């Protein structure tokens, strides 16, 4: 089909008219996704579970919006086992992962410079917040809204979301839910677990804000001293966050062994998406993620030659994504969060809502619905002024975080 549509202009023109030889390759395809599964983690044993969406619900695929694609270079580990072993050697024996044998691959990824593509991915991330029996379904182009039987009880453990697929199963989108904490309204059963994970991964030192706080790990050594080994141990032993994500991803590759997988998510789900993208070399679009670069380092993830297949999308009035969610009196701290990290992996599409929309920095602007409705749903004039649809993606190369802390070997 692609071939013929490419030929058409040639055939319909006069044979005698010389035509410039086209060197540009055919347009990458636009994809349509249908909702295929729900995923969750059982509270009892942290097992990943899925629920199938009945085929009757798949009729939405006729109307779901198209998502534009482009090719990107990504780096995949030779196997997950090799990756896990390199991580262990780095963590336990201090061995460098610099010579990790990444496989370079060209893969199909979402076209993150297309506004409507970001919009649809944002909507797909949003639906991960709620189950179909709650009222909170955001209408994905009005046409993603379906009702179907819900075969399992969402439990109290903080991790669930959706799996979308193209009708031919060639591309799969894994959508990870963000934090459903109290300050975003609602709260719900997952809030408690999410809070512990947030504070472990995204605070400078165990969410030690001041003496009134109960730190989430015991690595603070007085003043601004923090024991680095202790921090890393706590992450590995107390946080199921990354292992649950890698299990989920591995389960998905088992179900769809030949598929091209993308991972998307909002907030905490965005941060985990990025960690999975850095691990498995798959395209990621993360919305309003707290800085996850520090978490990647604390987890000793081997660092791929490039993480440009990971794209962050956030705006400047969101204190969680900007890493300004700190200080004893901040709204974040008052809600029991210390979200102090601010550096992101990959590239970032940053909407300057503070300058361009005169928004104040406010945790209430963090929600994905806000981002969908107020930022992505209509053209962004500052980008359009430059003949673009979205702001220019930037690298956060000179990013600094937790600069007042002194990390080192400070045994208790
Ligand atoms: C699926 O995930 C579970 C953990 O929830 C893991 O024990 C199991 O090995 C995984 N299966 C596959 C085929 O990846
Ligand atoms: C939903 O699908 C219908 C039928 O294809 C279409 O007319 C309508 O514009 C779609 N709605 C949205 C919001 O995309
Ligand atoms: C896609 O995967 C589903 C399982 O989720 C399977 O039922 C269906 O037959 C597959 N479709 C194709 C075209 O392979
Ligand atoms: C948007 O904000 C940037 C500064 O971040 C400024 O340079 C630009 O002129 C603004 N554009 C509009 C249309 O307000």
UniProtKB/TrEMBL annotation:
The keyword Hydrolase applies. It catalyses: a triacylglycerol + H2O = a diacylglycerol + a fatty acid + H(+). Keywords: Autophagy, Endosome, Glycoprotein, Hydrolase, Lipid degradation, Lipid metabolism, Membrane, Signal, Signal-anchor, Transmembrane, Transmembrane helix. InterPro entries: AB_hydrolase_fold, ATG15_Lipase, Fungal_lipase-type. GO terms for cellular component: multivesicular body membrane; vacuolar lumen. Residues 1-16 form the signal peptide. It is found in: Endosome, Multivesicular body membrane; Prevacuolar compartment membrane. Residues 251-278 form the Fungal lipase-type domain. Its EC number is 3.1.1.3. One of its GO terms (biological process) is multivesicular body membrane disassembly. GO terms for molecular function: phospholipase activity; triacylglycerol lipase activity. Pfam families: Lipase_3. Its main location: membrane. It is a single-pass type II membrane protein. Lipase which is essential for lysis of subvacuolar cytoplasm to vacuole targeted bodies and intravacuolar autophagic bodies. Involved in the lysis of intravacuolar multivesicular body (MVB) vesicles. The intravacuolar membrane disintegration by ATG15 is critical to life span extension. Binds to both phosphatidylinositol (PI) and phosphatidylinositol 3,5-bisphosphate (PIP2). PANTHER family: LIPASE ATG15-RELATED. Belongs to the AB hydrolase superfamily. Lipase family. This is triacylglycerol lipase. The lineage of its organism: Eukaryota, Fungi, Dikarya, Basidiomycota, Agaricomycotina.
């Amino acid at each position: 089909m692609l071939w013929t549509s490419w030929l058409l202009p040639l055939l319909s023109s006069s044979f005698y008219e010389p035509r410039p030889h086209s060197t540009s390759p055919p347009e990458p395809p636009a994809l349509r996704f249908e909702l295929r599964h729900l995923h969750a983690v059982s509270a009892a044993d942290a097992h990943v579970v899925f629920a199938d969406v009945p085929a009757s619900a798949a009729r939405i695929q006729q109307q779901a919006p198209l998502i534009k694609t482009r090719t990107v270079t990504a780096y995949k580990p030779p196997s997950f086992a090799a990756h896990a072993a390199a991580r262990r050697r780095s963590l336990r024996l201090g061995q460098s992962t610099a010579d990790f044998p990444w496989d370079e691959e060209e893969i199909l990824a979402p076209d993150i410079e297309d506004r409507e593509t970001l919009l649809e991915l944002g909507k797909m991330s949003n639906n991960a917040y709620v189950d179909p029996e709650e009222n909170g379904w955001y209408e994905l182009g009005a046409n993603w809204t379906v009702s179907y039987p819900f075969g399992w009880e969402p439990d109290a453990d903080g991790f669930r979301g959706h799996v979308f697929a193209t009708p031919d199963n060639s591309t799969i989108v894994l959508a990870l839910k963000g934090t459903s904490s109290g300050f975003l309204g609602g709260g719900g059963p997952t809030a408690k677990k999410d809070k512990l994970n947030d504070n472990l991964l995204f605070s400078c030192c165990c969410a030690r804000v001041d003496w009134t706080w109960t730190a989430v790990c015991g690595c603070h050594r007085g003043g601004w001293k923090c024991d680095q080994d202790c921090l890393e141990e706590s992450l590995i032993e107390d946080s199921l966050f990354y292992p649950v994500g890698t299990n989920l991803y591995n389960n998905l590759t088992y179900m769809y062994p030949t598929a091209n997988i993308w991972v998307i998510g909002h907030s905490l789900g965005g941060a985990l998406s990025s960690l999975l993208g850095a691990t498995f070399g798959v395209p990621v679009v993360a919305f309003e993620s707290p800085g996850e670069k520090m978490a990647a380092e604390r987890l000793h993830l081997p660092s791929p030659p490039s993480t440009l297949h990971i794209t962050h999308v956030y705006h400047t009035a969101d204190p969680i994504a900007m890493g300004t969610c700190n200080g004893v009196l901040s709204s974040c701290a008052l809600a029991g969060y210390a979200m102090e990290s601010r550096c992101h992996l990959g590239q970032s599409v940053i909407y300057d809502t503070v300058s361009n929309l005169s928004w104040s920095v406010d945790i209430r602007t963090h929600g994905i619905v806000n981002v969908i409705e107020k930022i992505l749903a209509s053209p962004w004039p500052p980008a359009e002024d430059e003949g673009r649809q979205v702001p220019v993606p930037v690298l956060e190369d000179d990013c600094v975080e937790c600069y007042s802390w002194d990390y080192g070997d400070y045994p208790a």
